[in-house]
Amino acid sequence: MYVHYCKRCSRIHMLNGHKMYCPKCEQPLTELRIPYMEYVSMDREERELFRRDCQNETVLEQLSAHYRMYKYSKWYKKLQEANRTAQSDAVTFYIADASAPRGASTP
Ligand SMILES: [Zn+2]
Questions:
Q1: pTM for the whole structure
Q2: Which residues are paired to 15 by β-bridges?
Q3: What local confidence, expressed as pLDDT, does residue 70 receive?
Q4: I need a surface site. Which of 13, 36, 62, 100 has the fewest CB within 10 A?
């Protein structure tokens, strides 16, 4: 199972395989890199927060599967904390920070 987000329906879809299009509205889906097991272990409030994050284009980019991030859960927890306490630019900063170091040709 893979977790996808449909902007059109603004909801999370858990689908069997890497799907490109929403089964409901047939618009392009964004596949999220959060593991299925991790998503299902979230409680209702966390899921709602997660879904709301997906509605933000910038955050959605960062949550989508083409960014490979192995310490996902750790930074996402931080992201959520930041989300609860700070303004949205603080969140953006967090994300930019988290995606920076890996794979770059820096020494
Ligand atoms: Zn849809």
A1: 0.61
A2: 2
A3: 46
A4: 100
Question: What is the distance in A from the centroid of ligand 1 to the CA of 23?
Answer: 7
Look up residue 78 and give its two tokens: 């931080």
**Sheet strands (E) in 24-71:** 30-31
Strand segments (E) across the chain? 2-6, 11-15, 30-31
Name the strands in the sheet holding 30-31, side by side, starting at the edge strand that comes first in the sequence.
11-15, 2-6, 30-31
DSSP lists the bridge partners of residue 28 as 21
Name residue 21's beta-bridge partners.
28
Q: What angle do CA 41, 36, 15 make, to 5 degrees?
A: 130
Q: Hey, where are the domains in the chain? A: 2-86
Question: 8 CA distance to ligand 1 centroid (A)?
Answer: 5
Ligand 1 centre from 64 Cα, in Å? 16
